[in-house]
Amino acid sequence: MDCFIRDDKMYLMTYDIGTSFIKTTLTNVTDKIEFVGATVVGTHNTTTEDRRGNEQNADEWWDTICRSTKELLKNYSISSDQINGISFCSQLSGTVLVDENGNVVRPPMTFLDRRADKEFKEYFDTGLRIHGLNIWKLLKAIHHTKMVPVGTYHPIWKYKWVQNNEPEIFAKVRYFLDVGDYMLYKTTGRFVRTEDSAFCSALNDCREDHSGWSLEMAKAYGIDKNHLPEIVKCTDIIGHLSAEVAEQLGLSEGTPVIAGAGDVSMVAIGSGNTKKNMTGIYCGTSGSVCTVVHREMQFSDIMMISIKGPNPSQKYFYGELETAGKCFAWARHLIGKMDETEYSYEECALLISKAVPGSRGLLFTPFLHGCKTPFENGDIRSSLSGINLETNKGDLLRAVVEGICYHFRWMLESQAKKCKISDTIRFAGGLARINVLGQILADITGHAIEVVKHPQYVGALGASAIAAIGLGKLKFEDIHNYIEVANTYKPNQETHEIYNKLYTKYLDKVKSDRKLVD
User: Fold this and answer.
1) Quick one: which of 164, 133, 17, 62 has its CA closest to 463?
2) Is the torsion defined by CA of 60, 61, 64, 70 positive or negative?
3) DSSP structure string for 196-216
4) 88 by DSSP, 3-state: which?
5) Regions of the chain with pLDDT less than 50
6) 291 in helix, strand or coil?
7) Which of 148, 159, 175, 176 is 20 to 30 A away from residue 278, measured at CA?
8) Spatial separation of the C-alpha atoms in residues 184 and 283, rounded to whole Å
């Protein structure tokens, strides 16, 4: 495998395909994973009239990575033959349906898409139920796949929605893919699903001494087994760039394509969370709490599950907040300047730091697009209470940040009831760049918080680590020492006590808001 390393340096190009941005990142793997540079391009999400559907444009994904790859090579004076490999970090739970020629038959549905409510309820909302799910169907899914497709966002129900509502389009479907799998097709011409993608589809046979697809569960859900492609390891070299694809990307023919994985495991790996019971919080467009464990775990009472990733000896036990950084972006836009520009992150940090803990009674719940963990409800929405005549921009921004952090604490505490979590939490994502947020997170959760270098690019850094493993440069046990920590924040006990009282009010507010939509 060392034959793919073209010189003493290992330059890698990795792509983080997210719901809000596509990040193309150039790294160099030496005795650490060095961040060289990146481009960030916003994606265009199309929302259906009823606000339940959410789609993206597959051509835009491809055009963006082609342009940004050439731009990075030019900006950093690196030739295409210096790139030793490419790989992907991608949003999970997308639904990409393609025909036999690899053309998408309809716009890809993102994990934010919740239009398949009818399909989900028709399957699970029957008979004897626990946590709202048919108990026998729940147990069957756990037995066969260790994964229950809970919630209307799950790809199975979006697949069924297309089947039920767009039959002419569905008739063209050859393969049922996720976002990263589609990008592997575009770069190699192979139709595959990575192991984590297959697991998250809730169709991967996870019984002892079994592997591949669970044909029994595919039949139960009404999924055509012929739509399920080959399953590959995240560290596999899926193929090499053809002359045509290489020209489009601006890279060299024959460049290896390493599979990569979904954002859950890539964020954990890119943050250096690669040891048992290490816990991380990610705050990008969405947010998550993830702990590395060594066994399958799924708990419908807190809506958390452990999923497969690149390391076969580890699982990633996580819960998700759909709109974390998205809430902050909303507030930042809302308080925009008179000239209609937005405050910079530095200006926002100053406004937040001037506001007092508790934001003078302002309380925000971060549910702009529903809640997934520790309860699933697509109809609940954010609330902002406690506004008075003295409320200012800093109070609003801080209240939104505090609401996000309260919810992260709730997710941490929910996880801690099911497994051991670490005392020190790794923090990453776009909002981790705001120093004051790291301190607020420490004060609210009571945990020490470590922020890694280049926290907004941890997904792409994780993909670089996996590419380096696939090319024989690294081993899984090396990764933790390759990721650098930039800042550490320890909780202020006095402020923590203030937040303890406010956290109780937050939980009470969520409880009352749930009654409005349950």
Assistant:
1) 17
2) negative
3) HHHHHTT-B--STT--SB-HH
4) strand
5) 1-6
6) strand
7) 148
8) 26
How far apart CA 195 and CA 120 sit, in angstroms, is 24
Would you say how long the chain is, in residues?
518
CB 88 within 8 A of CB 184: yes
Q: Which pLDDT value is given to residue 3?
A: 38
What's residue 393's pLDDT? Answer: 96
pLDDT at residue 328 in the model? 96
Torsion over CA of 506, 512, 516 and 518, rounded to 10 degrees?
A: 90
Round to whole Å and give the CA distance between 281 and 279.
7
CA distances from 171 to 47, 162, 227, 450 (A): 24, 10, 11, 50
Question: In the prediction, which pLDDT does 396 show?
Answer: 97
164-202 residues labelled b (16+ CB within 10 A) or e (exposed): eeeeeebebbbbbbbbbbbbbbbbbebbbbbbbbbbbbb
- Residue whose tokens read 């929910």: 414
Q: So what's the pLDDT on residue 417?
A: 97
pLDDT at 135: 94
What is the distance of C-alpha 463 from the center of its chain?
Answer: 13
Rounded to the nearest 10 degrees, what angle do helices 117-124 and 155-165 cross at? Answer: 110
* pLDDT on residue 339: 73
Give all strands of the β-sheet with 448-452 in edge-to-edge order. Answer: 298-299, 304-308, 315-321, 287-293, 279-283, 424-428, 448-452, 485-489
At 43 the pLDDT is 86
Query: CA–CA separation, 402 vs 429, rounded Å?
Result: 16
Residue 370: phi and psi, rounded to 5, are 90, -175
Domains of the chain: 95-177+192-228 (3.30.420.40), 321-452+486-517 (3.30.420.40)
